[in-house]
């Protein structure tokens, strides 16, 4: 789980935290842009959209439109919702191709039933677990969001949320409200044994019960252990990992190349040198 000492949602409400200064980072910080793009790519992969067919997607917590840029590159149309005026201003300055809407997802999604073919959300859902006002009830706000989102999705579509849960109780709160709203599905965890590369994706099915996708890097863990989230208040430490991230390793590179092949992109052939660590030059 993510550490609570530096969590932005503990600093201020989202519309206050994401001010003009913070919003500029999402158009100037190359590292932040790279991470956002990678998570968006993985979220779209988990949506399992029809190949070669443009879809109409919803981006919840769209911010400056970095996720939307990837959706546009893939040939999809999208609508972005965000609570921060400053973030949406940056998106407008960047001239993103999607439509933008200022709104609080805790108050529900104001769209007609069956409007969207899918939904993605990057690093936004955990904000609903905090009560920024006396009138805010996290369970009620989550339920209001999930029920209206369920209605706005076409039957058989998916919603994928990348999130940073603070603890197991947050995961249980989020998933329970999603299931109560009518969704099926569960949590997909990429690289579960890595402290740095580990990512949580809530993969929800609207109207149908699908097979939960497999998390990346799960083949390196014990085969007897499921890749789905094991709810525990304790943080596990793997001494043999020594804090080393699985990212950029051979398995990670092969998985990324395979994903790009499935997307129809041109990828170099795999060789014995793929992902090989080179000795430093003196």
TrEMBL record:
Residues 58-131 form the Methyltransferase type domain. It comes from the Eukaryota. The keyword Nucleus applies. Residues 248-257, 264-273 have a biased composition (Basic and acidic residues). Transmembrane segments: none annotated. It catalyses: a guanosine in 18S rRNA + S-adenosyl-L-methionine = an N(7)-methylguanosine in 18S rRNA + S-adenosyl-L-homocysteine. The keyword Methyltransferase applies. GO terms for cellular component: cytoplasm; nucleolus. Residues 242-282 are annotated as: Disordered. CDD domains: AdoMet_MTases (cd02440). Keywords: Cytoplasm, Methyltransferase, Nucleus, S-adenosyl-L-methionine, Transferase. It is found in: Cytoplasm; Nucleus. SUPFAM superfamilies: S-adenosyl-L-methionine-dependent methyltransferases (SSF53335). Heterodimer with TRMT112; this heterodimerization is necessary for the metabolic stability and activity of the catalytic subunit BUD23. Interacts with GRIP1. This is 18S rRNA (guanine-N(7))-methyltransferase.
